[in-house]
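Thread: "does anyone have the structure for this chain?"

Original post by V.I.:
We have the sequence but no experimental structure in hand. Need at least a predicted one for the grant figures.
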Amino acid sequence: MKKPIVILVLCLALGLASCSGPLISAVGEANDLVIVVDSALRGSVGARVEQTFSTESKWMCGEEAYEILVTTPEDFGNLRNRRHVLLVGTWGNGRVADLVRKNVARVPISDTAEFHITTDVWAARQVVATLMANSPEELIGYIESHGNELLEALLTASCERLADGLCAQEEAAGVRAMLEERYGWSLCLPSGYEFDSGAAEEGFVIFGRRRPDRFVFVRWIDSAEEEGITRDSLIAARDAVCRAYHNGDIVELRRPVLVDTVSFSGRTALRLSGWWGNMELVGGGPFRTYCFYDPDGHRTYIVDVSLFAPGLDKTSLMRSLDAIANTFRPHAP
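Reply from O.Q.:
Generated one for you, tokens below.
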């Protein structure tokens, strides 16, 4: 059996087995990442790690996955409350190894390179990853062999933590209860979103926020059984929904459109990531769409988030929108 490269530890604060967590909250944007590496490894290992986690997102038209700050353990003190932290080092006498031993106590010392993700080490709503090995050569080899997996694992953990934070807000509880009662599904929204339910009888509602423009829509269709969903059929379905209810936006096929199968709301979903365009309104921006069938409620759902933010960095905004989408939950009748 292949050994997993990621272990999620849900309850860990300051090395204690307590669920009370740190008293301070993590700060930073949704795409900020602080990489902590020993000074002796900064030029070799640090450069490869930075390259891995700043990989350009094709569907985001070249924006990097994370805005990265590389630092050393000696200069890490004022950065411990950042939203995302990655500790990279070798077991032995390095300062990074000391940080891991003292503060991320559940990461075991191993004979092989390993990558772990945990939460709430120095701040609440924080994601902390560790990448440790027994030599610099072993670290470099592991990064070169598993780089894409490491990036995707951190992106997933980041999205999940953002989603948890949204649902923990007191205001979100009332919205969730209202949506569940009215429509049989729920999601968690931050403050500032307006709600348009004018087409709810037709199975469509949309939430929007301005400056910059952000949208979340849910489309649901009652169906006795699951119908096969493909990349092309989902693109066509999204275009049809937007023509009917949302300004006529269409998927911009001249730009990269990525499709993958993911776990979403406890179901297997098809996910589209791409760029929308609107010739009449002369606009466009990134979107992400999830489509899945819920056998308990006998419904097919399309959950979509999109952004119009000309001149702004879009990765952080889009990641926060994706976190909203990932709070979606169908509720059985």
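V.I.: this helps a lot. The chain is about 30% helix and 30% strand.
O.Q.: and The radius of gyration is 21 Å.
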